[in-house]
Design a protein that fits this description.
Layout (H helix, E strand, L loop, with lengths): L14 E4 L7 H5 L5 E2 L6 E5 L9 H17 L7 E17 L10 E5 L9 E4 L23 E4 L5 E6 L3 E4 L8 E14 L6 E3 L2
Antiparallel strand pairs: 1-8, 2-3, 3-4, 4-10, 5-8, 5-10, 6-7, 6-9, 10-11
Length: 204
């Protein structure tokens, strides 16, 4: 076989960062949360807190923002663009529950932090792009990062998953006997961006 070199052009990077699991303690977080049914089409036994829950935890909000900033500066080389953490909320998925595929509007990056043990319910990403979805193909003999249309991450306590907000994702079925909790939040650029006719100055 001829030597083949594959270029993963224009990737949608998903980062998994280990954060001290004591940043947010389960009992501290849940004592401040009232959950409401998300009532999202395609979801069941899926609940969400009010928005901006991290405003009740300013120290932890800064820690998680610092983790994101280190990632976007060191890995993505976006050190000349400032971001601010905008919305934040906690999800609860009861046993047998799951969420629909969705993405996050009006944000550039999104993240999920797992302050609790996850024994059931993964986070699954799906591609709605071109091939292999564009035409009818037989399934490949082996799924790889080059041909897969879905990828599943099994979250661990103390992990923070960062991804572009346009990526569709969902919580798979919670097969455990316990409620599944996670903290979700979004980032948006702020300050001076661009130059000449593309210049804009954004304020929160």
């Amino acid at each position: 076989m001829n030597k083949v070199k594959v270029y993963p052009l224009f990737p949608s990077p998903v980062a998994i960062v280990k954060v001290n699991p004591s940043v947010l303690k389960t009992r501290d977080v849940l004592s401040k949360v009232v959950f409401n049914d998300t009532q999202s089409l395609g979801s069941t036994k899926s609940f969400s807190s009010k928005l901006n829950i991290l405003d009740s935890f300013p120290k932890q909000k800064k820690i998680l923002s610092d983790v994101f900033n280190e990632y976007k500066n060191d890995s993505l080389k976006l050190d000349e663009t400032n971001f601010v953490l905008t919305t934040s909320w906690i999800t609860k998925t009861s046993p047998g529950g799951y969420s629909q595929f969705h993405n996050h509007k009006n944000s550039v990056f999104s993240a999920v932090y797992y302050f609790d043990e996850i024994s059931g319910g993964d986070i699954e990403f799906e591609s709605y792009g071109i091939l292999p979805n564009q035409i009818m193909l037989n399934d490949p003999s082996e799924w790889t990062l080059y041909n897969a249309t879905r990828h599943t991450c099994k979250p661990q306590k103390g992990e923070m998953i960062i991804f572009p907000s346009y990526l569709y994702h969902r919580i798979t079925e919670n097969t455990s006997l316990h409620d599944r909790y996670s903290l979700a939040f979004n980032f948006f650029p702020i300050g001076a961006i661009g130059f000449k006719d593309s210049y804009i100055h954004l304020k929160k």
